[in-house]
Amino acid sequence: MNFPENLKYTKDHEWIRLEGDTAYIGITDFAQGELGDIVYVEIETEGEELAHEEIFGTVEAVKTVSDLFMPVSGKVLEVNPGLQTNPEAVNKDPYGAGWMIKVAISNTSELEGLLSADAYKALIGH
User: Fold this and answer.
1) What percent of the chain is helix, strand and coil (3-state, nearest 5)?
2) How far apart are CA 47 and CA 12, in angstroms?
3) Sheet holding 55-61, edge to edge
4) Alpha carbon distance 84, 78 (integer Å)
5) According to CATH, what is the number of the domain 23-124?
6) Where are the domains of the chain?
7) Residue-wise pLDDT tens digits, 64-119
8) CA 3 – CA 1 distance, rounded (Å)
């Protein structure tokens, strides 16, 4: 299982990668493994301002549907267009091609509440 050190994580199994004042967000390798084969990603929040821990979309796997939670408050700038035709990218490359949204962070102090790779590994028992 992969836990890149340059990312921050949430207790809800999202990851966040900072690039200046913007961030890419997706679900962790652990989460995609627990969900199984992902068949559909539904995100209809592009252009919206969302609060920390608000739902930004859902991911549908063969076994279940799971909500996706905002790790920080911000405006959804972009939804990964590749997920419409290739939702399995979340399984194959959760930290790369499987990213879900790009966000303009509105409250950088919320980043302090996120987990490091080591803290996330401890949370899930790895």
Assistant:
1) 25, 35, 40
2) 23
3) 38-42, 55-61, 65-69
4) 13
5) 2.40.50.100
6) 23-124
7) 999 999 999 999 999 999 999 999 999 999 999 999 999 999 999 999 999 999 99
8) 7
